[in-house]
Design brief:
Helix content: 25-40%
Number of helices: 4
Bound molecules: coenzyme A
CATH superfamily: Gcn5-related N-acetyltransferase (GNAT)
Strand order of the largest sheet: 1-2-3-4-5-7-6
CATH topology: Aminopeptidase
Distance between the termini: 25 Å
Radius of gyration: 16 Å
CATH architecture: 3-Layer(aba) Sandwich
Length: 167
């Protein structure tokens, strides 16, 4: 059973910090560029809870906290927002958890927030994340060539794939 729960107050961030410091999990995210601590994460979380432009949800699989999904950059004038997600518990990858969590978050965006469009961006190499979006009928609407640096030590770059789903 997969559920998402809106974060309204500070939750235990210990496990979450471990996930954010795991280079395999953050390989395709700018989170890989900083060191995360319980203190920094609590500060981040407080900002998100207060923010008008973000809704952050915990993802639960059979009542176990396994990841996060966020509706960010909520624009109430244009009625658009971005969906972002990660599954920190790697033993649960490949079980359609992110696909379901994204589906629930998108439904929340359309029904509860009145959004008309939800969009997402992935690294070109992040095929599993692209699959999550395709599973949710997001359409690829653009590719920004060589948008991302892959590492501090290499000149190799990756494209950014942009997807959207219209209500
Ligand atoms: C990307 C991520 C969210 C996927 O979560 P998940 O719960 O494993 O995703 P799902 O099981 O719902 O779907 C994954 C799909 O990708 C497929 N997949 C996995 N690795 C793949 C690869 N290398 N190439 C192509 N497809 C791949 C799976 O087979 C599955 O396809 P299916 O729906 O046809 O079975 C998770 O791996 C993760 O958190 N990664 C690190 C953080 C991240 O990349 N976040 C997204 C940033 S845009």
């Amino acid at each position: 059973m997969i559920k998402i729960k809106l974060i309204k107050r500070i939750v235990d961030t210990k496990q979450w910090v471990k996930w954010l410091n795991d280079k395999e999990i953050t390989k395709f995210s700018e989170q890989r560029l900083r060191k995360h601590t319980v203190k920094s994460q609590k500060k981040f979380l407080l900002g998100k809870i207060k923010s008008e432009n973000s809704k952050l949800f915990q993802i639960f699989y059979n009542n176990l906290f396994v990841g996060l999904v966020e509706l960010g950059f909520i624009d109430r004038f244009h009625k658009t927002c971005e969906v972002m997600y990660f599954l920190g518990n790697k033993s649960y990858w490949g079980k359609k958890i992110a696909t379901t969590a994204v589906s629930l978050a998108v439904r929340y965006a359309f029904k509860n927030l009145g959004m008309l469009k939800v969009y997402a961006g992935t690294y070109g190499k992040n095929k599993s994340s692209q699959k999550v979006l395709k599973n949710n009928n997001f359409k690829l609407v653009g590719v920004m060539k060589n948008q991302f640096r892959l590492s501090k030590l290499s000149v190799k770059r990756d494209d950014k794939y942009i997807y959207e789903k219209i209500k």
